[in-house]
Every structure is written in structure tokens, then in C-alpha cells.
Design goal:
This protein is α+β, with helices and mostly antiparallel strands. It contains seven helices and four strands, in the order αββαααααββα. Strands 2-1-3-4 form a four-stranded mixed beta sheet. Strand 3 and strand 4 form a beta hairpin. Helix 3 packs antiparallel against helix 4, helix 4 packs across helix 5 and helix 4 packs parallel to helix 7.
């Protein structure tokens, strides 16, 4: 994932992903390529860009943008957490070998507490 250097490309990849994925997925706990895309986005995007992505049309992108903002600037993420309180849009969520459908408000905010939904 190190080769991609454009935030827009990373956002498009997340937009087209099957769902929100934790770092390790499947029975073999393989390193998720989608999670690697998220990590690259987190490393490249500015706080302002991440705040802008919190309003993206795609729920997966909103979740990953909030996760990235939480990692980079927790206090700024907390200032924007209200955006997610009423967001009941659902996404596929992959953690380990479990796939579930989870509301955006739950999956986005759980990253602040490092919990799983």
C-alpha cells in the first residue's frame, strides 16, 4: 500500500471495498488489504481532509475517516463525534472470521474506545 500517494485514490478504494474491515480477517487472521488502505489514508490525509471525509456519501469512507481522525487527533474526533450519533446507516463489518452488519454510529464510535461492536 506504500506506493499509493493520492488520498483520492485511497478514498476510491475504500468506497469500492466490500465493507469495513479490522486489521486481521478470516480464519487465518490475514492482514486486510482494505485495512492497509485505511492505514495509508490515515498516514497521508490531513486532519482537514479527514474532517471533510466525515461527510462522504459512502458510509464506509465516513467510518474509516473517523477512525483515522481518532488515531491522529482524538480531541478533534471527539468534537465531530456528534455527526455519528444518529447515523444508523449499516455497513458490512469484518472482524476476524466474523462478518456482521453494523450501524455506522456504533462502528465509528467504538474505535474511540478500541472495542468491537
Amino acid at each position: 500500500m506504500q506506493k499509493i500517494s493520492k488520498v483520492k485514490t485511497l478514498v476510491n478504494l475504500l468506497n469500492d471495498s466490500l465493507g469495513v474491515e479490522e486489521k486481521h480477517i478470516g480464519f487465518a487472521r490475514s492482514y486486510s488489504k482494505t485495512y492497509a488502505t485505511f492505514e495509508r489514508l490515515r498516514d497521508l490525509a490531513s486532519n482537514n481532509t479527514l474532517v471533510s471525509l466525515l461527510h462522504h456519501a459512502n458510509a464506509k469512507v465516513r467510518v474509516y475517516a473517523f477512525w483515522a481522525l481518532s488515531d491522529k487527533n482524538k480531541s478533534l474526533a471527539l468534537n465531530h463525534a456528534a455527526l455519528f450519533r444518529n447515523d444508523t446507516t449499516t455497513v458490512s463489518y469484518f472482524s476476524g472470521c466474523i462478518k456482521s452488519v453494523v450501524a455506522v454510529n456504533r462502528i465509528a464510535l467504538m474505535h474511540l474506545e478500541n472495542e468491537t461492536p
